[in-house]
Amino acid sequence: MILLRLAWRNLWRNRRRTLLTTTTMALGLTVLLVTLGLGDGSHLQMINSAVRSGSGHVLIQARGYQELGGVERTLSGQQRRAVAGWVLEKEHSFGIIGTAPRISASVLGSSSDGSVGVQLIAVQAEAEARISRFAETVAEGEFLTSKDSGKVLVGVGVARKLKIGLGDKMVLMGQGAQGEIESIVVRIKGLIRTGLVEFDQVLVLADLATGQDFLQLDQRVHQFAVLLDDMNLASPLAAAATRAFPELEVLDWQQALPQLADFIRIDDGGAYVFHFFLFMLIAFMVFNTLLMSVLERRREFALLEALGLVAGQRFLLVLLEATLIAVLALLWGMALGLSLHAYLAMYGLPLDIISTSELSVAGVAFEPIMYSSLSPARILQAMIVVFGMSLMLAMVAARRAALAGDIRLLGSH
Amino acid sequence: MEVQARKVVLRLEDVSRHYVQGDLTVKALDHVDLVLERGEFAVLAGPSGSGKTTLLNVAAGLDTPTRGRVVLAGHELEGLSRSEKARLRLSEVGFVFQAFNLIPVLSAEENAEFILLLQKLPAAERRERIRAVLDGVGLKGLEKRRPGELSGGQQQRVAVARAIAAEPSLVLADEPTANLDTETAFDLLDVMEKLNRENGTTFLFSTHDPRVMERAHRIIRMLDGRIDRDERR
Asked: Does B75 contact A at CB distance below 8 Å?
């Protein structure tokens, strides 16, 4: 207790230095929390955007579809019903928001003004509205309903290339499941702007029945996309689905969107390097302060030794001083960092201060506002980094304190 | 033999302490033999540079002799680590430095209490003892002041209070009355004499002060690092 009292008072002997050190550490923690929050938040937004743009958190499809594609690689009607039933069973235990069957095929879209290669995605309109953002990205016209046979939504890029608009007709032509060339005339019900320029230049969204009819698929679908409340349950659900349907291909979002997963890993790696250098800078400053504080008190450590304080207690004294500084810095840094995080989580950081054009990475559109997101584990991680760093550096300074005693210093005023 | 061993608080046998300064070797202590028995009230006298402070430092294990043997409270110092010596001082020795050496962030009361806290004395006993000691050295009313708020004489009284509060078997004091006025010096000597008389605490002072020498039972006169005369009264 006396050591704690001594440590606390020692901190305030050089008030300015203590405040400067704690402020530096607190600002370091603040920067750490804000950058982690914005990093995790933007990743979360990208993942949400990606999974709501097609893949869902989990994809269940015919084996080989991810790598090879192919219109004929489908789930049979029986498999489709089995998967739908199984997903329904798991709804509560995995927090499943919704599931949607889909057809996807590369076909040719034509109008009287030309032709362009497009990606046809045929969906069950009501189910899709629950799990994807397509309904929210309608720029003109309306989203599909299950009664919209023969109607499609097209990306604004497709509309521009084919010079078509609401109510116009276009022809879709492609290879059907039987290997024959099939075609269908469809009417434009709406235009979609997803935020991904490349995607908007190829996207044609149709009702599931229209797609099945066009591609001669009967009741078959290419895949089931499952959206979850908690993306951390994607892998466990995918594993459970793999066990339930060993003949099918089950992918979690990281497997379904490998480019995005890789981007997040690389981005995290870059952030760790940035944080490492940031903390090296702070560490040197903190270390310098602690060491100076010990070296200028060599006479005092000699006195403490003369009075009977053993090396371990002198070591502990400096460690306590560093711990108190770290606790103060943590409290201050947490207050500042979490306040900024709360603001950025609520109001976000508008990206138009960086660029006014639409931004996308790894095939995923960046939302125009970046929101902060911090899990308790991330906060704990940041606290451990700051606290651990201070204590590690303090050990070196404390060792000097334990050995610093020089009796000759006690003889003079 | 056993009785005699218990009685001896400090024994220095052929102790020398030499400092090398460039080409020059300073013999701060030169073949010193000294035995201090329990209950003695002894003074180290001698001119500046005669080796008084070095002898006190060597006796307390704060400085290591170049040669010779030091036995403190039955413990041979040579074989002890720094921490073991620190523990031995904590339990057996009170030290008053020439330069006060108080802990600047602690009040007078806390400085005096410091060793008792390290000895883990119960709070009630600690408070009682500190009150008595601070009253005894004339610091009543100044308990809460920090060293920076005290005069040199008052700081020295705190240093003495710290040394005697734990009632050690040996108090080593380097010029304890050097900064005190006559009245306070006598008050301090009264307190120490009382401790010496009632508890059998052994005192060894270095001093130039004739007031201290008058009260001593034994005067050890030093010259050029050697004991020149050893008078008992």
From this structure: no
A148-164 per-position pLDDT tens digit:
888 999 999 999 999 99
Angle in degrees, CA A216, A220, A225, rounded to 5: 130
Look at residue B2 in the predicted model and tell me its pLDDT.
41
Q: Residue A356 CB: number of other CB atoms within 10 A?
A: 9
Residue A214 burial (CB count, 10 A): 24
Spatial contact of B92 and B168, defined as CB atoms under 8 Å apart: yes
Question: Nearest by CB to A308, which of B86, B99, B101?
Answer: B86
User: How far, in Å, are A132, A192, A247 from residue A201 at the CA level?
Assistant: 19, 10, 35
Q: What angle do CA B98, B101, B107 make, to 5 degrees?
A: 135
Query: DSSP secondary structure string, A165-220?
Result: -TT-EEEEEEE-TTS-EEEEEEEEEEEE--S-HHHHTTEEEEEHHHHHHHHT-TT-
- Do residues A192 and A154 make contact, with C-beta atoms less than 8 angstroms apart? yes
Angle at B40 between CA B102 and CA B88, to 5 degrees: 50
State the nearest Cα–Cα gap between A300 and chain B, in angstroms: 7
From the list A339, A249, A305, the residue with the least C-alpha distance to B81 is: A305
Query: Given B86, B99, B103, which is nearest A305 (Cβ)?
Result: B86
Q: Say yes or no for a CB contact (<8 Å) between B95 and A306.
A: yes
Q: What is the pLDDT of residues B160-202, one digit of tens each?
A: 899 988 889 899 998 888 777 888 788 778 888 888 888 888 9
Residues A235-245 have a mean pLDDT of 93
In chain B, what residues touch A306 (CB-CB under 8 Å)? 60, 62, 86, 89, 95, 97, 101
pLDDT score recorded for residue B189: 84
Predicted model pTM: 0.72
Facing residue for B89 by CB, picked from A5, A308, A311: A308
Residue of B nearest to A301 (CA): B103
